[in-house]
Amino acid sequence: MSSRANQRKSKQAEQVVASGAGAPIDDVKTTEERLTKLLGDFNSGKVQAFGLHCPYEKLDEVRRMQEDLVKLHFEIDNKLQSDSNSRSKRKPKAGLLTEDGRREAQSNILKLSSELEALGYSIQYLHHSNRPQS
Questions:
Q1: One domain, residues 33 and 76
Q2: Into how many domains does the chain fold?
Q3: pLDDT tens for residues 76-95?
Q4: For residue 34, what are the domain limits?
Q5: Cβ distance 81 to 96 under 8 Å?
Q6: Residue 20 domain-assigned?
Q7: CA torsion angle for 8, 14, 15, 21 (degrees, to 10)?
Q8: Are residues 38 and 77 in the same domain?
């Protein structure tokens, strides 16, 4: 880079600093102060993350349901993969073309759907329990 280009960049940087680049630093300090106050309020119990009517037990239950749904999904997928590998290396989906394969796939979809629906209701319940009473 030429000396002239360096001088131009240096001059531009000086103009930015002179034109109020300190303002964003003030914003950062203000934001930091507000976040520190919020953290203090949260730790002292003045502010609650999920409201009074949403104990951690409900959140743990939702997390457990999510984990169970993931496990079920992977169990079904692993079973499908192992079944398809034992039937035919060339046609991994051949098992789905049989009547038994279709019945099993439908059953798996129903299991996953019902678990997902139950999880959805639990999450919705958390949401509604956080609403302020009118």
A1: no
A2: 2
A3: 888 878 876 665 554 556 66
A4: 3-44
A5: no
A6: yes
A7: 140
A8: no
